[in-house]
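Tutorial, part two.
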Amino acid sequence: MLNVGDKVFIPIFGAGIVYIVENKIIADKDSVFIGIKLLLGNMSLIIPINKVKDYKLRNVETIEKAEKCLKIIATEPTIIEKKWSKRYRQSNEKITEGNLEKECEVLRDLYFLKKKGGIPPGEYKIFNKVLHLVASEISLIFDITISDACRKIENFAR
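Running the prediction step on this input gives:
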């Protein structure tokens, strides 16, 4: 069960904090809803507790796991797909899993391509998306701002 103050991550929306857990009666059914204040986009999200799995909602990672995942960004990729359209699809699949490790792999690959001569506009959108998703989670894990989290990520990419 989720509680007020829990730090959570949703693959499509990024990280946030549960600000309300509330019972509501809708269509004569008693239902529990959770409210999440998201870090990205200054949005709030209300989710029925029975739909949490559909959103792939999970608790944010531990500091130890986050540090391990961030180190992935500093490594050199072993294989990068040559066709950008296939790479784009693979990156999107990894991002929608909601796994911090996979998201850091996408960042690593895109930082590598960026250094080697740039990335296509479509992949640049993916780059910004995954950078902010990871930054939102890092922000909550280390209790820093999103800007500081982006700088922390960029330091690993050097």
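The beta strands are 7-10, 14-26, 29-38, 44-48, 58-59. In part three we will examine how such features are distributed along the chain.
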